[in-house]
Amino acid sequence: MAAPHRPSWKTAWRSFYYAGAPEAPDPVLVKGKVALLVIDVQNTYLARPEDRSALPPLERAREAAWDGFHERMHGIVIPTIARLIERFRAGAGPVMFARIACLTPDGADRSLSQKKPGWNNLFLPHDSEASQVVPALAPRPGEVVVTKTTDSALTGTNLRLIFTNMGITHVVCTGIFTDQCVSSTVRSLADESFDVIVIEDACAAGTMELHTRELEIINRIYCEVMRAEDLLGYLPA
Amino acid sequence: MAAPHRPSWKTAWRSFYYAGAPEAPDPVLVKGKVALLVIDVQNTYLARPEDRSALPPLERAREAAWDGFHERMHGIVIPTIARLIERFRAGAGPVMFARIACLTPDGADRSLSQKKPGWNNLFLPHDSEASQVVPALAPRPGEVVVTKTTDSALTGTNLRLIFTNMGITHVVCTGIFTDQCVSSTVRSLADESFDVIVIEDACAAGTMELHTRELEIINRIYCEVMRAEDLLGYLPA
Amino acid sequence: MAAPHRPSWKTAWRSFYYAGAPEAPDPVLVKGKVALLVIDVQNTYLARPEDRSALPPLERAREAAWDGFHERMHGIVIPTIARLIERFRAGAGPVMFARIACLTPDGADRSLSQKKPGWNNLFLPHDSEASQVVPALAPRPGEVVVTKTTDSALTGTNLRLIFTNMGITHVVCTGIFTDQCVSSTVRSLADESFDVIVIEDACAAGTMELHTRELEIINRIYCEVMRAEDLLGYLPA
Amino acid sequence: MAAPHRPSWKTAWRSFYYAGAPEAPDPVLVKGKVALLVIDVQNTYLARPEDRSALPPLERAREAAWDGFHERMHGIVIPTIARLIERFRAGAGPVMFARIACLTPDGADRSLSQKKPGWNNLFLPHDSEASQVVPALAPRPGEVVVTKTTDSALTGTNLRLIFTNMGITHVVCTGIFTDQCVSSTVRSLADESFDVIVIEDACAAGTMELHTRELEIINRIYCEVMRAEDLLGYLPA
Predict the structure, then answer these.
(1) pLDDT above 70 covers what percent of chain B?
(2) For residue range A195-204, what is the model confidence (pLDDT) as tens digits?
(3) Range list of β-strands (E), chain D
(4) How many angstroms away from the CA of C2 is the closest CA of chain D?
(5) A123–chain D nearest CA distance, Å
(6) Of A112, A120, A206, the CB nearest to B193
(7) 3-state SS string over B115-161?
(8) How far apart are CA A91 and CA D96, in angstroms?
(9) Is the pLDDT score of C76 beyond 70?
(10) Which residue of B has its CA nearest to C105?
């Protein structure tokens, strides 16, 4: 039986602005000039309560609403990023990591948006277990890891200069959350004249709807969205 | 007859992440420390073909798809921004403008994303009529106008430093397009620790769906989304 | 009679750190990838009192102390920059200008150091005659001119991104003052991984001693210092 | 017997531009809003050959020329910084460190100027002993340490944003080398609208002449130069 047809990345994830536009061209990726960037795949975001039944009803419902995210992370996103890391380490280009972490014990160095109450309030000391990249994707010695207290991995770090110094022209973005730090990083990279690729099955948001919505918004304008298998066909050996 | 009930901005435009979260607090705006930023409301985006019937069918359909945007701009967005400008000029704080424009005659200074083919390909020489702010919102002498070849009004300008030098802590964002330059600017401002407010009826995207989607994504995390009438209640006299 | 011997730029302007170091290599300049940057050669810095004898004695002495600077500017620096501009306009690469200027009528957008009392207190509205580039070096339409309220022409502008977008790898710096805005710009450019050349006879400081001291400090570490005639031998046709 | 008269910092280290200018005003330092920044006091710069007599004559002479620097560092600069650190840790404000270090094993992330041959060629992997801050000034857990591959501690790091987020308005600069990384950092800080103080006896250059020359160049324009005992009189308790 034939595999179900899936539209080419070249015409997928289109918003109103690009309806009817021509197909995206094949990217030309040069060995050593393309970097893999893994954004915010940190222990804290994969943590779950040990005993959900002990939670008050509202929190239990809230926790349940995150089930889809965790399934996607473990079933698709983390394995996909691991596969890409392996391929980049084999020689395509450097693997780099950004993670949210503050340098001071009281979080005073965090940007305003990460100090405000609510979902985005983040207090992740840089040496805490919670702020580390998940073990399945652990950086190797010698790989660049930047810490940030911002959403864009460029605004609050020296990553732009590192990319420039290393001769990187194309950045492949993966990680979480598609609509937040991934989108902010992609937008900054495009503004700074990098060629950006986002791997759909290497990213996730709180819901698939938010994930897909933001991909449609950033695709073609700030980046090319494709799947890991699409990218692997373009990566230099 | 009573006016139709509209939910308070404090619980509106919420995404998955903020479902069930407490109401947003009232912003505290201090005279001279809050700026109004008008983003990319330029002639080029309001231009329409003189005779639509002369267009080939596909372009005609494409043009028709933009009718809603133009109606919203002329009926709601531009009048709302004009009202806000008047109030800020009366003393609340400075009015500033960002516009997309290149400094070189061949556009060589544009960022990569604005050189690529498609919707986002922009070639707007800074002294062309097309790149000027629309007459209804024309900047006055002495008001700051920055030009950019990026989407974020911070990444490719010195606006962050200008805000800092002028003692601005809160930035009220208006303009187009909600999901593109407005969102990119809001994200940069939040990362740079400014308090950001986005005025829903002073922004527009290609479609209302894109507009609302991105507002839900950025609200509470990077900014507070409210309507002009909400803001006017908070602005210092 | 033979011309007086002048040491090659390759071993000149050396400080303690580079005593005994090998000669600097020949720069390799590629057409279109090298830019000429003219820094702060503005009317205000060339202005002199109409009638010096009318000044109080202390101010008259102070004015007289500046005679050497003005002689050097008119006799050497401005003619040298004019010659370089001509050569760059003939095709070597773009000519760009930075000038100190504020965008607001009260100078509120200036950086702190330009608001403090003393020599560096600067109030140069961008549309004033005083803030314009001197007529002998006037920018042509289509040439990039950035305004700044900082000393480094990179910190307070989008010049770094413009250089990157235009594919510029080498920047030739000229202008005033050697120890202030020129040095600050050179240091920023080097930190941002540009190859920098400073033209000794196209720069000036308040005194020749300050000029030479700072050239010795920045030479080899942040830039190569040479004379215009040296550069002309390396410029692409 | 009376102590030898030493001129007040308020009129010392003046260059041509500030000859005859009024005295500098007393700085107003607020608890928690002033930070101490220790720049590049790293093991590599204090290292000396074990047996100088084993060196070839030229290198031996070169090494001897550095004797003054090392005497100043051990006799004056390091003890002075240690004294300042103690006072800041007692509550005046945060102590922060910048050090030159690359993140990649081959130094590919270094800026161009640190890859060029000569004195400034630096290859200091971030986890090497050579790149650590000297033990006498070792950072405590929870103190911010930024790594950079640039000379300015702002250009190539997120220190500016950290200062802003922590509410720092005044930065006290110490470290090495006065004419290089210290000066570049001071210039960047001033451009970014921080109030900057440089402690004369907490800085050093390769020679005292270079040290004093650059202090005269940056004093009053970008910073106030004073001695540690002067600062201690202004620091909040």
Answers:
(1) 97
(2) 999 999 999 9
(3) 34-39, 95-100, 145-148, 170-176, 195-204, 224-226
(4) 34
(5) 14
(6) A112
(7) HCCCCCCCCCECCCCCCCECHHHCCCCCCCEEEECCCCCCCCCCHHH
(8) 37
(9) yes
(10) B142
Q: Give contacts of B140 with chain C, Cβ < 8 Å.
A: none
D187/C184 touch (CB, cutoff 8 Å), yes or no: yes
Partners of C161 on chain A (C-beta within 8 Å) are 192-193
Q: Is the pLDDT of residue D1 over 50?
A: no
| Partners of residue C165 in chain A, C-beta under 8 Å | 193
Are the C-beta atoms of residues C20 and D62 closer than 8 Å to each other? yes
Residues linked to residue B224 through DSSP beta bridges, in sequence order: B197
Residue A204 domain-assigned (yes or no)? yes
Lowest mean pLDDT among B109-118, B190-199, D163-172: B109-118
Q: Does residue B12 lie in a domain region?
A: no
Edge-to-edge strand list for the sheet holding D34-39:
D145-148, D95-100, D34-39, D170-176, D195-204, D224-226
Query: How far B162 CA sits from the closest chain C CA (Å)?
Result: 5
Q: Give the pTM.
A: 0.96
Neighboring chain B residues of A118 at a CB cutoff of 8 Å: 18, 21, 220-221
Contact C81, C88 (CB under 8 A): no
In a domain, residue A13? The reply is: no
pLDDT at D3: 52
User: How far is D98 from chain B, CA to nearest CA, in Å?
Assistant: 21
Which CATH number do you get for residue A151?
3.40.50.850
How many structural domains are present in chain B?
1
Q: What range does the domain containing C163 cover?
A: 30-47+55-232
A19 located within any domain: no
Nearest to A155 among B18, B151, B192 (CB): B192
Contacts C62 to D, Cβ<8 Å:
19-20
Contact A146, D89 (CB under 8 A): no
